[in-house]
Design brief:
The chain is of the alpha/beta class. The protein contains 16 helices and ten strands. Strands 1, 2, 3, 4, 5, 6, 7, 8, 9 and 10 form a ten-stranded mixed sheet that branches. α11 links the parallel β1 and β2.
Length: 415
């Protein structure tokens, strides 16, 4: 409980840690916004734990804070409620525990459930069931239908072959969905102007709410599935963007800039854009969007990095604006262009007027003009759009500021 001389403890929270979709009330004309639903979910969870007498455990100091820093942290900002791993393990079921962001499922299993390889498996030949097992397999469960290697080669196209479970998303894309570098990008040089038609006629990955998250470039670029990217966010200034791109620590690792082009709003479209939706932005968003800008960064791979690191060149268009309005302007009202892929990650307390995931405004805009991308990389707190299925056999890969696991989805008719 609280010390007798105190009646209130103020704690910072991270709302997205608690599932909130049940509080969104989709379809209700007075539907509450996502921030409100997240707050309601946190309040209900805190109340539940308090009634059980278990809430106090979640105020504990996280275990990974060094002793020499703990006093300083306690006197400055403290730590986020729910961040104690021991409390999570004690009170939350395994499937909602907050994992170490850089640990994959394979690494977790390797730590806790590792076994020695059976000798029979160690001696097995590729694609062959050992003779001493074949009769037993046939009499018990048999083999998986169409699991024979030669049957798959004969009857399935390359992009539908059964994948090995530890294949990364980039490896999957590179196997069956890679492209050559666009010629305009190969010819790009300092002093160039923004090549609107060439850029948007290329495969473009659209990332609303991106800020400086490099995962879209890392996955689709390394997979050679796309060379052009549109990063849209209103939560930074032009000097901040320049500082980020110039930073050895935070810039695109293994790449250097060969051209940096300021892009005027009139260069993004052939004709003026006419907004068709009235969006309700909070004060934070309105302030952040007071100085919109766009900048094209042409990147070239450093000579000390090999072909496995990524393509020789990339083009990233940064737009400081609203992700919904920008999608409408670039794709909905431009009949010749559509995104090849979209990264969907809903954010809490980001000033966003609606959701990027299913049932949100971005899906509605895409449906209006049938500008559906082939692929989507979707965070686990974001609902996939209708008509998309998760590609089985590919592990989730953590990304973004909070290392949300993200999975690759494909449009059903493109599968």
């Amino acid at each position: 409980g609280l010390p007798p001389e105190h009646s209130v403890v103020v704690a910072e929270i991270f709302p997205s840690l608690i599932p909130h979709h049940q509080y969104l009330e989709h379809g209700n004309p007075n539907e509450r916004c996502r921030d409100s639903a997240q707050m309601l979910a946190c309040c209900h969870e805190a109340r539940r734990l308090d009634q059980l007498g278990e809430l106090t455990d979640f105020f504990a100091q996280p275990e990974n804070i060094p002793t020499e820093l703990s006093l300083r942290i306690a006197h400055e900002e403290g730590w986020i409620l729910w961040s104690s791993k021991s409390a999570q393990r004690k009170h939350f079921p395994d499937d909602v525990l907050v994992r170490e962001p850089d640990m994959t499922t394979s690494e977790q299993l390797r730590q806790s459930d590792r076994e020695q390889m059976p000798q029979l498996l160690a001696n097995a030949q590729p694609g062959v069931i050992p003779e001493e097992l074949s009769l037993r397999v046939a009499n018990e469960e048999g083999g998986i239908h169409r699991s024979g290697r030669y049957a798959r080669r004969d009857y399935f196209p390359n992009d539908l072959q059964v994948r090995k479970p530890d294949m990364t998303i980039s490896e999957f894309l590179r196997q069956g969905h890679s492209e050559s570098m666009p010629q305009w990008l190969a010819n790009a040089e300092p002093g160039m102007t923004f090549p609107r038609a060439d850029f948007f006629s290329s495969r473009v990955v659209y990332y609303p709410g991106a800020r400086f998250d490099g995962q879209a470039v890392q996955i689709f670029g390394s997979g050679r599935a796309a060379h052009c990217f549109v990063y849209v966010d209103f939560d930074y200034t032009l000097p901040e963007l320049h500082a980020e791109l110039n930073s050895e620590r935070n810039g695109f690792r293994g790449y250097h800039s060969i051209a940096r082009v300021n892009v005027a709003a009139t260069e993004l479209r052939e004709t003026p854009w006419h907004p068709r939706r009235q969006l309700n932005y909070g004060n934070f968003a309105r302030r952040a969007m007071a100085n919109p800008f766009a900048l094209l960064e042409i990147l070239e791979r450093n000579s000390d990095f090999g072909d496995d690191h990524g393509p020789n060149r990339l083009a990233v268009l940064f737009i400081a604006a609203c992700g919904f309005a920008t999608f409408d302007a670039l794709f909905n009202q431009s009949p010749d262009y559509r995104p090849y892929a979209i990264l969907l990650q809903d954010h809490g307390f980001g000033g966003c007027p609606d959701e990027f995931g299913a049932g949100g405004l971005l899906e509605d805009l895409s449906a209006e003009s049938a500008k559906h991308p082939k692929f989507m990389l979707i965070g686990n707190n974001t609902a996939p759009w209708t008509g998309y299925r998760q590609i089985e056999g590919l592990p989730a890969e953590p990304g973004g500021m909070h290392a949300f696991p993200r999975r690759l989805y494909v449009q059903e008719e493109s599968a």
